[in-house]
Amino acid sequence: MKTRTGFVSNSSSTSFIIGLGHPAEPCPHCGRGGDDLVRILESHNHYETELEWSDPSERLEELDREIREYTDKGWEDDTEYLEDEKKLIVEARKKFPQVIGVSVSYHDEFLSHMLEEMGKAGDITILRGG
Length: 130
Description:
about 130 residues, alpha+beta, 4-stranded antiparallel β-sheet, about 40% helix, about 20% strand, globular
């Protein structure tokens, strides 16, 4: 039986909010820079793994719309998670040059491992998810 550690979920994917640091400077000899997570996600093709959003301002507008829709329907009790996400993004924008939303398939071991390693190296900070 295989035992998974790290990013584990009972659903088919897990959503993350990730704070990205400044990109690494390219090597003066070979030109290779650090891993660009947004570029990797945009070109990564795996079932249910995707870059959900890369513009926090647009995500905040979307959250405001969802909160209004829920409130208009009388579902105020269901807006707490949305309000929490909104606060998290607002605070994260003060600390990180870039904040993104990512959905990672449970079966995408490559990207799960990559996120784990980037987190250990301090290149990214997982703010929510996992």
